[in-house]
Design goal:
By secondary structure, the protein is α+β, with helices and mostly antiparallel strands. About 15% of the residues lie in helices and about 45% in strands. It has two domains: about 5-115, Proliferating Cell Nuclear Antigen, CATH 3.70.10; about 135-245, Proliferating Cell Nuclear Antigen (Box), CATH 3.70.10. The chain is elongated, with a radius of gyration of 19 Å.
């Protein structure tokens, strides 16, 4: 069909639709890494508020024709506009050439989009030296809804985590809102809470990736008092989106 140097095919194009669209709201340009381990985008926003790590392992792809490592720059806004054309019937195939890459939707026929690779200076991102002692795993749809509920009131939200209960609140001149999720609700799937936790974050950053919940069954929230929030969305086939957000301190 089309000339290629590397080719990857994934069973659900919507994963890329929601993940890339979310990342593009935080970072405009970044470097994509493809090697025998899999596909990775690991990047930070300019303000160093958010660290993003999107990874899909090689064995999650239907086709993973990769002989050589490829690292290339992309404009995430342009990529996002393309992947938003994905439908629920589509697979996605990515063909990586010497100076361009192509996104192919395979569903009712095939639709191909070719975009330029960019020369993007990549900043080395150290591994965060953070040990989280508190974690709650909730249904991903509940995460999306609580973010939507609270963004109507304030630009900062505060997480309160106690054994058996997650409470998130927002307060501003517009009013007050809170979402309470008790253990018996069935929304909490797993928890490990060693202390009472209170920490605040910008709701804007939390909304950017909330739609990833549409292709993830659950989201793991790890946090501590006035510590970053690490949200990990588990994607089919062993993929994941890790999203680390700095706290907003008073």
């Amino acid at each position: 069909m089309w000339g290629k140097r590397l080719e990857l095919t994934f069973f659900d194009a919507r994963v890329w639709k929601y993940v890339i669209t979310g990342i593009s709201k935080v970072v405009k340009e970044t470097v994509v890494h493809v090697n025998d381990e899999g596909f990775r985008i690991r990047t930070m926003d300019e303000a160093k508020v958010v660290l993003i790590d999107f990874f899909i392992p090689a064995d999650a792809f239907e086709t993973f024709d990769v002989e050589n490592e490829a690292n290339f720059g992309v404009n995430l806004e342009e990529m996002g506009r393309v992947v938003r054309r994905a439908t629920k019937e589509d697979k996605i195939s990515i063909h990586i050439g010497e100076s361009t890459y192509s996104i192919v939707f395979i569903g009712h026929g095939e639709r191909k989009f070719t975009l330029p690779q960019l020369d993007v200076a990549e900043e080395e991102i150290p591994e965060p030296d953070i040990e989280f002692e508190n974690k709650v795993v909730i249904r991903s749809d509940a995460y999306r809804e609580l973010v939507k509920d609270l963004e109507t009131i304030a630009d900062t939200v505060t997480f309160h985590l106690e054994p058996g209960t997650l409470r998130v609140e927002a307060r501003s001149d517009l009013g007050y809102a809170e979402v309470i999720i008790p253990e018996e609700s069935g929304v909490i799937l797993e928890q490990e809470v060693n202390e009472s936790v209170k920490s605040s974050y910008s709701i804007e950053y939390l909304t950017y990736v909330s739609n990833v919940s549409q292709v993830a069954d659950k989201v793991s929230l790890e946090l501590g008092n006035d510590m970053p929030l690490q949200a990990t969305f588990e994607i089919g086939g062993g993929g994941r989106l890790l999203y680390l957000v700095a706290p907003r301190l008073e």
